[in-house]
Amino acid sequence: MSTSPSIVIPLGSTEQHGPHLPLDTDTRIATAVARAVTERLDWLLAPAIAYGASGEHQSFAGTISIGTEALTMLLVEYGRSAACWAERLVFVNGHGGNFGALNRAVSLLRSEGRDAGWCPCTSAGADAHAGHTETSLLLHLSPADVLTDRWRAGNGASLSELLPSMRRGGVAAVSPTGVLGDPTTATADDGKRIFAEMVDDCARRIARWLPGPDGMLT
């Protein structure tokens, strides 16, 4: 280990993912991606931050949201502490609702002279929530925890179409099951492919280390 190691911190959420996926789905995905990246780049892997800004899912049992303000503060103080000994730190994010807090927190850390960044777990053509994409990933990463006897197709409209209603009433306003997409088409093979895309994308961003104005690595 170098005298000034660099660290990857998975960031997820605790929220409903339909009747068929576990509450920590986003955290599992972020942790798996972060672990694969650290093995490839020889960085340190931190324990995951498992709570995020999930207010849009608050109507569903099991969701615990700490909100954008609290998450921003947590990430800032985490970054300030880690930067005392880490050369660089990067948050690997598995939940879209965390974007606002990440943008604010990492931008502030960078303005304070700390070498921080963040990257999303992304893949081409991903659906919105608990549908084909996330279910395929969990069939690859944690197949025993996917309740295939409970999965049902949800609202398949695009996120841009759903957002106006979701801003007014959350996910429950557009899907009574909390599913956005179709999990019944998911396969472990697709999950393996999607996971590899996420790892490759995140590893490339970190290796390039070109933070944008919001701290996201490009």
Automatic annotation (TrEMBL):
InterPro entries for this protein: Creatininase-like_sf, Creatininase/forma_Hydrolase, MftE
A UniProt-annotated Pfam family: Creatininase
E.C. numbers: 3.5.-.-
Classification via SUPFAM superfamilies: Creatininase
Keywords for this protein: Hydrolase, Metal-binding, Zinc
Cofactors named for this entry: Zn(2+)
Lineage: superkingdom: Bacteria
GO MF assignments: hydrolase activity, acting on carbon-nitrogen (but not peptide) bonds, in linear amides; metal ion binding
Residue spans crossing the bilayer: none
Segments of this protein annotated with the region Disordered: 1-22
GO biological process terms, semicolon-separated: riboflavin biosynthetic process
Top EC category: hydrolase
Family label: Belongs to the creatininase superfamily.
Name the record gives this protein: Mycofactocin system creatinine amidohydrolase family protein MftE
Provenance organism: Mycobacterium simulans
